[in-house]
Every structure is written in structure tokens, then in C-alpha cells.
């Protein structure tokens, strides 16, 4: 069967959306799902901030967006580095007056991940802690009706997240580390939604699974024989494409249908039920508080939930 090669905005049914005057940051947009979403937001007229570590790849995406008539810039930041994420927050604040759409997409599965300078297991730091740091650092920069969209994964199902163990490496496989970070993504997105609502904010927060996508660069972290199988799958019309994955991100960022939806989990542009552990309110609150402790920052949006409890 022929693949649907339509652009993400068409797959999401938002090809008529006009994002001119809006600003979008897509983290991890040097390749894969993020790159396709950044290009799509650009085609819809938004000013786009492209992010990742690879400058050459980032600049190429900027050129592609500019060729579609929108403005774009690349900002590099390594999500395994707290200071780099602080610098990204500052650069975004210098670059835009307000941010309308924040897509927390950067992430991956990392072999031999080790721990970061913070003493935290790297996958958890890159995939969860840095998006938390970035989002909470940008709260004051978000437009009144901004949308925060977080790329999670179906891999969160069956994952366990023991926050006492995110500083340990013993007995942890790269896949288990990845899956628990994706569980954290949904818990974070849901808790952000809850706190924003308690603060009477119109900013929304949703998460999604982009599909199973052999055509992105996600398999960089795989080893043989899985790497060989994934590389082979890239040559076949199987699985989802980066454009399929980007469609749900663009749907959550640009569709009228999702303008007032918050605290939900999606796949294929439809609301789904995340695993019970991703909706466990006690776990969500604990992740929020412990993430602030790990980053040694004051608990963000703490007043809202204290007065709302
Ligand atoms: N592919 C799948 O089947 C699949 C399934 C479910 C969920 N996802 C999720 O989808 C998202 C995008 O992945 P993808 O499939 O599009 O893979 P990808 O092509 O490898 O894209 C990952 C992006 O994240 C950035 N990134 C990775 N590590 C980083 C770090 N330490 N600091 C800053 N940026 C970093 C990469 O940029 P640089 O390399 O330039 O730093 C790249 O732009 C991820 O969150 C992934 O977990 C993917």
C-alpha cells in the first residue's frame, strides 16, 4: 500500500491554520519528528526557533523554513548540561517577546549514558529534567494562550519510575531508562496542566506518542542486531514516518480542536488514555517537586497548587 506522504499540517487537518505572528520553539528539531514539525510550523507562517546540538543540521532546517517564507533561527544547547539549558532560556527570552508554542521534543535512547554533572542518569536528565527546566524557566515568556506540547512515547506503558533511583546506573538498561523518562514526560505534562489550571492560566499542556518511526535518527542509540534491523526497516515502507509523528505535534500546537484541551495524551491526532502510572496524581506531584530539588531551584507554580489543594 502506498504511504501517505502528505505534510504534517495536512495529516493534522490544519493546513489552513495561520500562525503568522506566532513564535514556536521545537526542541530537538535538527532531525526526525522535530525537524518535520518545525518545517510544518514554518509553512503555517510561524517564526520558528530550531534547537539541537548539531549546528550544521540545525542551520539546514533554518534554511528550509526560510525558503518557505517564515523566519527561523537555530539555538544550540546540550540537554545533558544545566548551564546550557539556562543559556537556552535566556537566548529564547532575548529572541522573542512571547512564546506561543513550546514543543518539548528533544530526546532519545542513549547507550552507555552514564550520569551528568548533576549526578543524574543521563537519559532521565536529557529526556525529562531539561524539558522541565526549560519549560518552567520560560513560564513568564509564554503567551497567555500558549500551548506546551511534549513528545512522549508508548514506551511509557509498563515502565516504572522510582525517583530515588534516577541517580543510579546499576541494573538499568538503556531501554528501561528510556521508558521511565517517557513516563516522566507524561507525568510532567499532566502536572504542568494541573498547576496551570490551578493558577487560572489559559496555557495548555499536552503530551503525545509520535508512532514507531524507523526513518528518524532515533536508532542512533541502538546496537546490533537491533540497529541492523532498524536500518533495514528504514528501507521498507513500514512503520510511521517522521511526518506522521510531527502531525500530532502540529495538531496539538495549531488545531482549533485542541485550543482548550489540557492535561491529555494523544496519538495519531486523537486523544488516548495513558497508562494509569502516567495519570497517578501523587506520582505526578512528587516528580514535579523532586525535579525542582534535583535542579536546585524553587518549586515552580507552587503557590497555585497550595492554594488549590
Ligand atoms: N522514533 C521513534 O520511533 C519514536 C517513538 C516514540 C517516541 N519518540 C520520541 O520522539 C522524539 C524525537 O525523536 P526522533 O525519533 O525524531 O529521533 P531523532 O531524529 O534522533 O531526533 C532527536 C532530536 O533530539 C535532539 N537531541 C538528542 N539528544 C540531545 C541532547 N543531549 N541535547 C539536545 N538535543 C538533543 C537531537 O538533536 P542533536 O542530535 O542535534 O542534538 C534531535 O534533534 C524523542 O523525544 C523520542 O523519544 C520517537
Identify the overall geometry. Answer: globular
What's the main sheet like?
Answer: 8 strands, mixed
- How many DSSP E strands? 8
Strand content: 5-15%
Describe the structure.
The chain contains ten helices and eight strands. The protein has helices at 8-11, 32-43, 55-67, 82-95, 122-137, 174-198, 226-234, 242-254, 281-295, 302-308; strands at 23-26, 47-52, 72-76, 99-104, 142-151, 204-209, 265-267, 270-272. The mean pLDDT is 94. By secondary structure, the protein is of the alpha/beta class. It has a single domain (8-299), classed as NAD(P)-binding Rossmann-like Domain (Rossmann fold). The chain has an eight-stranded mixed sheet with strand order 3-2-1-4-5-6-7-8, sandwiched between helices. Helix content is 41%, strand content 14%. Residues 28-34, 52-54, 57, 78-80, 105-108, 126, 151, 153, 209-210, 212-213, 216-218, 220, 242 line the site of NADP nicotinamide-adenine-dinucleotide phosphate.
Task: Write out key terms for the chains shown.
Rossmann fold; 8 strands; alpha/beta; single chain; 41% helix; 309 residues
SSE topology:
Layout: H1 8-11, E1 23-26, H2 32-43, E2 47-52, H3 55-67, E3 72-76, H4 82-95, E4 99-104, H5 122-137, E5 142-151, H6 174-198, E6 204-209, H7 226-234, H8 242-254, E7 265-267, E8 270-272, H9 281-295, H10 302-308
Helix pairs in contact: 2-3, 2-8, 4-5, 5-6, 6-9, 6-10
The chain binds NADP nicotinamide-adenine-dinucleotide phosphate.
The site of NADP nicotinamide-adenine-dinucleotide phosphate (NAP) has 30 residues, from helix 2.
Short description:
The protein is of the alpha/beta class and 309 residues long. It has helices at 8-11, 32-43, 55-67, 82-95, 122-137, 174-198, 226-234, 242-254, 281-295, 302-308; strands at residues 23-26, 47-52, 72-76, 99-104, 142-151, 204-209, 265-267, 270-272. Helix 2 links the parallel strand 1 (23-26) and strand 2.
Amino acid at each position: 500500500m502506498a504511504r501517505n506522504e502528505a505534510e504534517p499540517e495536512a495529516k493534522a487537518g490544519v493546513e489552513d491554520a495561520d500562525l503568522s505572528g506566532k513564535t514556536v520553539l521545537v526542541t530537538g528539531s535538527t532531525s526526525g519528528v522535530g525537524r518535520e514539525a518545525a518545517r510544518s510550523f514554518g509553512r503555517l507562517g510561524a517564526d520558528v526557533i530550531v534547537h539541537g546540538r548539531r549546528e550544521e543540521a540545525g542551520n539546514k532546517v533554518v534554511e528550509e523554513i526560510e525558503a518557505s517564507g517564515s523566519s527561523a533561527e537555530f539555538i544550540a544547547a546540550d540537554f545533558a548540561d544545566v548551564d546550557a539549558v539556562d543559556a537556552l532560556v535566556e537566548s529564547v527570552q532575548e529572541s522573542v517577546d512571547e512564546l506561543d508554542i513550546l514543543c518539548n521534543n528533544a530526546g532519545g535512547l542513549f547507550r552507555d549514558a552514564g550520569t551528568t554533572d548533576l549526578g543524574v542518569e543521563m537519559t532521565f536528565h536529557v529526556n525529562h529534567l531539561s524539558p522541565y527546566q526549560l519549560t518552567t524557566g520560560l513560564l513568564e515568556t509564554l503567551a497567555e494562550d500558549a500551548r506546551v506540547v511534549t513528545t512522549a512515547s508508548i514506551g511509557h506503558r509498563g515502565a516504572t519510575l522510582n525517583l530515588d533511583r534516577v541517580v543510579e546506573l546499576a541494573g538499568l538498561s538503556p531501554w528501561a531508562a528510556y521508558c521511565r523518562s517517557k513516563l516522566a514526560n507524561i507525568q510532567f505534562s499532566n502536572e504542568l496542566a494541573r498547576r496551570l489550571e490551578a493558577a487560572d492560566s489559559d496555557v495548555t499542556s499536552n503530551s503525545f506518542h509520535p508512532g514507531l518511526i524507523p526513518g528518524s535518527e532515533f536508532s542512533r542509540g541502538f546496537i546490533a542486531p537491533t540497529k541492523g534491523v532498524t536500518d533495514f526497516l528504514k528501507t521498507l515502507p513500514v512503520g510511521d514516518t517522521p511526518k506522521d509523528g510531527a502531525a500530532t505535534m502540529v495538531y496539538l500546537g495549531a488545531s482549533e480542536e485542541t485550543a482548550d484541551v489540557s492535561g491529555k495524551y494523544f496519538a495519531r491526532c486523537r486523544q488516548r488514555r495513558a497508562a494509569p502510572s502516567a495519570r497517578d496524581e501523587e506520582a505526578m506531584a512528587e516528580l514535579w517537586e523532586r525535579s525542582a530539588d534535583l535542579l536546585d531551584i524553587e518549586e515552580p507554580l507552587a503557590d497555585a497548587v497550595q492554594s488549590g489543594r
